[in-house]
Amino acid sequence: MFMNDIFCIIITEEAILIYMDDILIFSDNLEDLHHKTNHVLKVLQDNDLFLKPEKCIFEVQEVKFLGMIIRPDNIHMDPVKLTGIQQWPEPHTVKQLRSFLGFCNFYRRFIPNYSSIAYPLNELTRTNKPWKWNKLRTNAFTTLKNLFSSQPALLIPDKTKPFILETDASKVASGAVLTTCIIRGLTTWRHYLLGAPHTTIIWCDHKNLSYFRAARRLTPRQSRWNLFLSQFDISITHKPGKDIPGADSLSRRPDYGTEPDEERTLLPNTLFIGRIDVNLHNRIKESQATDQLANTILRAKTLNIPSPFKFSLDDWTTDSDLLLFRKHIYIPDNKDLKQQILHLFHDLPSFGHPGIFKTTSLICQHYWWPGLTIFVKNFINGCTTCQQMKINTHPTTPPLTPIPADPSALPFQSVSIDFITDLPLSNSFDSLMVIVDHDSSKGIVLCPCNKTIDALGTALLYHQNVYCRFGLPKCIISDRGPQFASHVFQTLCSRLGIKSKLSTAYHPQTDGQTEQANQEIEAYLRIYCGTAPNTWAKSIPDLEFSHNLQTHSVTKTSPFNIILGYNPIPIPPAIEPTNLPSLSERLCLLTTIQKEALAAHDLARLHMACHTSRNFTPFKLGDKVWLEATHLHFPNRSRKLSPKREGPFTIKQVLSPLNYCLTLPKAWRIHPVFHASLLTPFAEIDSHGPSFTQLPPDLIDGHKEFEIEAIVSHSGNGKRRKYLIKWKGYPSSANEWLKEADFENAPEILNDYKTLHFL
């Protein structure tokens, strides 16, 4: 560091090279060399540094420096260093192999195709690779020794002539004539290519790379590459691999297998959402030049002949070699061009994914083509971001199908059970178990309890409050709470002959009666316990009595009347009844009331079916759907700013026209069956193009690595903390939990997330 500090100015001017205590001064002519030498000697003298004359040489055409022999037109390896290379013994341990490769790496630039030759040997140095020396590795070892023994030389490039960089890469090696692919090639030869007097031409067999620098929306890694490329005067030109034999043969040796390399190919521009070509108008000109309608219009105007179309020729003008219709640029029938314009006016933050009307208005200010409105409508209907993030103004409305009533059911033989939780603590209770007579009376039984109640506690409460009064039920309807979905509760029901019906996930309409009862109960408690919330447990008997006394809208009578055959007297009557029915009359009346209640139940079910959507189309097996995110809870994630829907997910099983089983990520530990009202069809429309590009993975250290787009959420603390990430180009259904150690190649995303969440 000391030598670099005292010679920093001269080093910056590229006058000398310094390594430790070795100083190399070079120049194109003697006069300049003398000047630089005197300057170096003066700096040494000023810093009280001394030279040994016997170790110095001056004004020579050949010099030994850092193990290399440097001449005006070439560079050679030091023959002294190569002594004994042919006698190097075959390695038997990883340590011996690394010693050999360390020597080879020092002179690797002299060996063409070094990466692919040494690949079998480098494989053995990996920590998880067992030692297995075979014929392939013996050949690689012998080949390297022979190549070093031949003492090849490197020519010094002529800077006065333009450079051509030929690049190619495969999964195991990269090759070039001026070695490796674009970024690595420019890095390796930066001292030649930076500031070159001529434009450097880069030949590459990946056509899409020729458009790379025209893109505006880039990933963080691509942005860094683009910033690096901006230092050079380069032109990337596509050339098929067969026309670049030098580079292609280096990276695709036949002994490395014939596995296709398609995953390394970049996708076309049209598959990248938001990809914008800065030369849009040039593309429009090129498209107009080959468009039949444009050529017909221009020909008619030139020859002054009548318009062959319904519109007047006066509507058409030209400006800057562009054809305009009523002062709007005409866009030919080119789907890619139309999609590019739509991405520009719809996807950019400046426009914010507007709806059909607003997007159409924005485009109509500048462009026109036949069928513009329909194309915009189809494009926006297929926009994945709009489907996932915006409020659905046309939600799926499947028909409501109430659970059919058992015509022979007695009171509380078919019951539904639910819990009202998180109530203020009252008499050591914080929750309320609500039991509703589903098929017969619509009456309720209320049991104060705690939120931590388990399956055994639920069964005990039911035994004390319902079983001892009404007997064993035939059917229990409930949600998928742990009390009911547990093995204990299901086993108990099975042994007692009770049919357990669990509702569809996140669909309370499955048991609408209990949900309505819950609303009435909560309203009662707000009214009578709002000022003294810790007393609600004392009000439960009055609450239960009041509900069972009131006439139900479905049965047209009260639960008490169906259960008892009469209504209990809540307050002293104004007039004493005189004619009380006999016991036989009361039994007949009770039978009549129960039959009428059942008929009323059927009538309500038919009425509901008639007033639901008739436009519902059931989903099919294999369909892709969005799942409403209303009931999906992700830790440390803003509900207001989270996507409205997750997915798309594939329907793997159709359980009924209203219930579907989805293929969910393994990390989601929830029941995969959902009601149709929670699902929205996933629209993938040709006008919009593919919704998810599924970008090919990078190959880092021989392993596939997909790019992280964003961190969605996190859970846990310290070393146990995990992050839910979204992969670039993949839907949210592919989201995955990763540990902090997995962010080795995405530290910026992790650090930004930690800063934002104060982690």
TrEMBL record:
Signal peptide: none
A GO MF term: metal ion binding
Cross-referenced Pfam families: Chromo, Integrase_H2C2, RT_RNaseH, RT_RNaseH_2, rve, RVT_1, SH3_Tf2-1
Superkingdom of origin organism: Eukaryota
Gene Ontology CC annotation, any one: nucleus
Residue ranges of every copy of the Integrase catalytic domain listed in the record: 407-567
Record protein name field: Integrase catalytic domain-containing protein
Organism: Phellinidium pouzarii
